[in-house]
Write a structure and sequence with these properties.
This protein is mainly α. The protein contains eight helices and no strands. The protein folds into two domains: about 70 residues, Orthogonal Bundle (Arc Repressor Mutant, subunit A), CATH 1.10.10; about 110 residues.
Length: about 190
């Protein structure tokens, strides 16, 4: 009979997530996980087959945390919904820098990445609703905004800059209004 699990799956994932949150993804090892749990690494592997399984669970948990930031900020009403999505992205980078790096700054060269408009459809629809732009133009505006917001978030996560959220909100609005003007002017011509 296999040994009884000393820890639950959730306890192991939580410990692994906390290692990554404080020390980065590379710090997540069987030894560091065992130490965080106050044990040897052995009990971890009564639940998980290997470190790859744990790493996948940490990625999933970090993604859930990020989506919670999005939902909270978009429901909060402090900003218009589309702007709130960008502000949440930057806030996540500021408050959870290591998880942000894990989700959005890791090497993706071995991953199959497909363009999937359906994943961002709600954001495209918000832009279309707010601007009257076509779907293709709304998509392009979103991509250009995301590149800008990602730059701010990346510089925040790496401690290159630390803008306060009020200033960040102002410059995001400036860029959005400039892009919106360009796209609307293009459609009018």
């Amino acid at each position: 009979m296999p040994p009884k699990a000393k820890f639950t799956k959730d306890e192991i994932i939580e410990a692994a997530l906390n290692i990554v949150r404080t020390n980065g993804f590379k710090a997540l090892t069987a030894r560091s996980l065992g130490a965080r749990l106050g044990s040897s690494p052995r009990p971890v592997f009564t639940i998980f087959k290997g470190m790859e399984d744990i790493q996948q669970e940490v990625l999933s948990a970090a993604n859930v945390m990020y989506h919670n930031y999005l939902q909270e900020d978009m429901a909060d009403g402090k900003y218009p919904a589309y702007k709130a999505s960008g502000m949440a992205y930057i806030r996540f980078a500021k408050e959870e820098a290591e998880l942000f790096k894990l989700l959005f700054m890791r090497d993706r060269s071995n991953e199959k990445i497909e363009e999937n408009r359906e994943e961002i459809r709600p954001l495209i629809e918000l832009i279309m609703e707010n601007t009257g732009l076509s779907e293709d133009d709304a998509y392009l505006l979103h991509i250009e905004m995301w590149i800008y917001v990602h730059g701010i978030a990346t510089m925040t996560a790496t401690s290159y800059l630390d803008f306060d959220m009020e200033f960040t909100g102002r410059i995001i609005t400036d860029v959005y209004e400039g892009l919106k003007y360009r796209f609307i002017s293009k459609e009018e011509k």
